[in-house]
Design brief:
Number of strands: 0
Shape: globular
Pfam families: Metal_hydrol (PF10118)
Helix content: 55-70%
Distance between the termini: 52 Å
Keywords: Hydrolase
Organism: Sphingomonas anseongensis
Number of helices: 12
Strand content: under 5%
Number of domains: 1
Order of helices and strands: HHHHHHHHHHHH
Protein name: Metal-dependent hydrolase
Radius of gyration: 19 Å
Low-confidence stretches: 279-288
Mean pLDDT: 92
GO molecular function: hydrolase activity
Structural class: mainly alpha
């Protein structure tokens, strides 16, 4: 297994067992009263309880015989993902209590997972590797640009930042597990499979998250061209999360790729510093 861009030797994957939003209910349009912003984050959250359980299941099937460092990282990864599933399940229940029907979105997630589970386990690992790269580059952008959570309910924003930190922290685990599991494959076969899976995952991710967001916007009375315009502007123009991750997405296909070729631990340090600092007057006012 190539270790040219393996996880940094001093990296520690640390599960942060936190609970969010248990004290008070968030407003229905929790993301700055913006229907499109609330919709896309709710649509993303709907994927996490089942999706992250799938990631854990997929990686665990290949943990036997991995190097000791990777075994330790897999343990940290699975613990983090289990907590993420729990917190997003709670987040989704709050969305349901505010009046959203998530059943169609949840059914689509289960449909996609069922298709993958019907394939050999290495396919599930490949899908996990690809989706983990997706979550890591989304997490990087979320932490790097505060505009993505401007105006959001504080508890909800804290949840998303916390999740983003841990996604960056364990971003190499599924990939390194994949490298170990396919260590006897020819390099050309490994690249073809991972490229094919990433293209498939990307197509489903964009189609399903867009459709899910539009369904939630419909439940808020925003439909047709208005809904499409709001959502596409938000995702691709300003703040433009999907546009801004395009380069990092392309890097997945390049020779020598590894998630830790981009060392973005400075974002984790900044998060830790902000979490430890006293609340500013502005934060106190927004929480009031």
């Amino acid at each position: 297994m190539s270790t040219t861009f393996a996880a940094p030797g001093d990296l520690t994957i640390t599960p942060r067992d936190r609970r969010f939003g248990r004290e008070a209910s968030a407003p229905r349009l929790w993301h700055g009263e913006r229907v499109e912003a609330t919709a896309i984050y709710n649509a993303l959250s709907t994927t996490f309880p089942a999706g992250e359980a799938f990631f854990v299941e997929s990686v665990r099937k290949f943990r036997e015989g991995v190097p000791p460092k990777l075994a330790t990282e897999i343990k940290g990864f699975t613990t983090q993902e289990a907590i993420h599933s729990r917190e997003h399940d709670a987040f989704n229940k709050r969305a349901q209590l505010s009046g959203y029907d998530l059943s169609k979105l949840e059914a689509q997630v289960e449909k996609r997972l069922a298709i993958t589970r019907d394939r050999p386990p290495i396919v599930s690992l490949a899908a996990t590797m690809a989706l983990e790269h997706f979550t890591a580059i989304l997490a990087h952008q979320l932490l790097a640009d505060p505009r993505h959570l401007n105006g959001a309910d504080r508890d909800a924003a804290d949840l998303w930042r916390w999740h983003a930190v841990e996604e960056i922290e364990h971003k190499g685990v599924a990939y390194d597990t994949w490298l170990h599991a396919t260590r006897h494959w020819p390099r050309s076969k490994r690249w073809k499979v991972k490229a094919k899976v990433m293209l498939y995952v990307t197509r489903n991710f964009l189609v399903d998250r867009t459709a899910g967001s539009l369904e939630l916007m419909r439940q808020d009375g925003v439909t047709g061209l208005t809904a499409w315009a709001k959502l596409l502007w938000y995702l691709w123009i300003r703040p433009g999360m999907f546009r801004k991750i395009a380069g990092a997405w392309v890097s997945f296909f390049l020779p020598g790729f590894h998630p830790w070729k981009v060392d973005d631990r400075h974002l984790l340090t900044a998060y830790a510093g902000a979490a430890a600092a006293p609340a500013t007057k502005r934060e106190v006012r927004s929480a009031a």
